[in-house]
Amino acid sequence: MDYQTVEHESFLMVAAHRKSRRLVYLCGFVASLTSILLGYDVGVMSVARKYVDMQLSLTSVQSEVIMGSLNLVAALGGLIAGKTADRFGRNRAIALACLIFLTGSACMTLAWNFRVLLVGRIITGLGVGCGFVIAPVYIAEITPPEIRGLMVSLTDVCINVGIVLGSVVGFFCELTIADDDAKWRVMLGLGTIPPVIILSFLRCLPESPRWLLLQDRVPEARHVLKRIVGHEQEAERELVAIEEAIQMERDVTTDWSEVLCPRHRAILLPVLMGLALGFFQQSSGSEAAVYYSPQILAEAGMSSTAHQSLGNIAICLCKFAGEIVAMLSMDRVGRKPLFVSSALGSGFFLVLAGASFQYSLPPSLLMTSLCLFMAFFSVGMGAITFVVASEIFPLPVRGKAMALAVFVNRLLSGIVALTFLSLVDAVTYANTFYLFAVISFISTIFYAGFLPETMGKTLEEISILFEKESAEHEAHVRHAEEAMQRRLAASDELRRGPAPISPLRAFGGEGAASASIAGQYQSTEHGKINEAHA
């Protein structure tokens, strides 16, 4: 009887664990769908741009503004997203991001001139930026540690799912819709479907237990933890651990000055590394390769619109495949090897893309170069950038530093999309790709020489690593300062000159030799005095 009771309780525990794990997967999947909003826009605009330019009679500069404005505004949206999520909750913040995106998509779909379309892009950018920051935070707070890395990486995977989805939708709209004006409006209008799906599922998802505890809503937090953990005792332990972490964060809360002007090297180093990670990811030109791939292929000699769209889909699929490889290997191979191989491979195939234009090589070679460039980019720089950024930031500044890194990343993304056509007009396609290649090769130095390996380390161990390096640096600086002070003191003594030395002391004082020398000295002095009298 006792054995049967134990077996029955074990069965119930396993069933509860599976049920809770399914809920966690659902939470992560639905929250990750917010990243599809960004990816869909990137993929569909690469196809819709030429029809938008034609129907609204946009200039080259206006086209660049339309393409780049979303990411520039998304950078600002990322900065305000944290405050919104802290005040209204993670679920409501995600819902707000979806509503903003819906409004922007409707505005773009119904746009009748450049100004209305730009307003729609700006509104959409705010929604994209909010979702880009809030979703990883919600996933990290709702998932257990053993699957947290996998679940957080879903956001990057969903960006690429959105890119592929957008390019495929654009391709089929080109094939099935005859009216050019209707083509791009349908492409952009279909972008309202993902946020509607997210909103319909949000009502079933629990709020973040961490946010509930921040609001002192302990009973609700306990109920949510029971649902996502599946065991009451484990939920209580998790509740206590979260409360302790919240108290520690309150004790070490810092303001923006500690992020923008760090006084401690243990904070300065990871903040600079996080900003460098965000910078190098977008300055390699990946956003331009996706946004403008149909036009790039057309300039290389691929005249068929269908072939251009298929080439765009192939590029997006290669980018997606690289993300999958990175997700499966980052915890086995390590972060640094993937970063280094990603930067070197990206640089090599960017050089090949530039050579394809410079020497008028076949368009198929250019398309292959772009496909392999995106694959290598996604293996490291594309997929792991924000995984490492979230690992290296110290706890007191983690939220603000992450928001700053996202801001720099989206800002660079917008600048690249905004200036690509102008840069091409100024220096040609070949030199533009060579420029991106140089930046990729330079990033290899940063990844190989300065970025620490974080695989297999806890967040506390990574923080200790920076604190230890900071302590060693401070000790080295102290030794250098002490050595400099000793050299300055010695230099001052040399400038003052040696003290006068008497002949007696110089030659030993007493003794016959000393007396003789002293006598000679006195005789010489008397002789000089007599000469003076004479």
UniProtKB/TrEMBL annotation:
Q: What is its subcellular localisation?
A: Membrane
Please list the reactions this protein catalyses.
D-fructose(out) = D-fructose(in); D-galactose(in) = D-galactose(out); D-xylose(out) = D-xylose(in); D-glucose(out) = D-glucose(in)
Q: Which GO terms describe its cellular component?
A: membrane
Under the heading Pfam families, the entry gives: Sugar_tr
Coarse class of the primary localization is membrane
**Would the keyword Transmembrane turn up in this protein's UniProt record?**
yes
- What does the UniProt keyword field contain? Membrane, Transmembrane, Transmembrane helix, Transport
What SUPFAM superfamilies does this protein's entry cite? MFS general substrate transporter (SSF103473)
Tell me what topology the record assigns in the membrane.
Multi-pass membrane protein
InterPro entries reported in the protein's UniProt record? MFS_dom (IPR020846), MFS_sugar_transport-like (IPR005828), MFS_trans_sf (IPR036259), Myo-inositol_Transporter (IPR050814), Sugar/inositol_transpt (IPR003663), Sugar_transporter_CS (IPR005829)
Q: Does the keyword Transmembrane helix apply?
A: yes
For this UniProt entry, which segments traverse the membrane?
23-40, 60-81, 93-112, 118-139, 151-172, 184-205, 338-359, 365-389, 401-421, 433-451
- A GO MF label: transmembrane transporter activity
Q: Where is the Major facilitator superfamily (MFS) profile domain?
A: 27-455
Q: How does it assemble?
A: Homodimer.
Q: Which family does it belong to?
A: Belongs to the major facilitator superfamily. Sugar transporter (TC 2.A.1.1) family.
What protein name does the entry list?
Answer: Hexose transporter 1
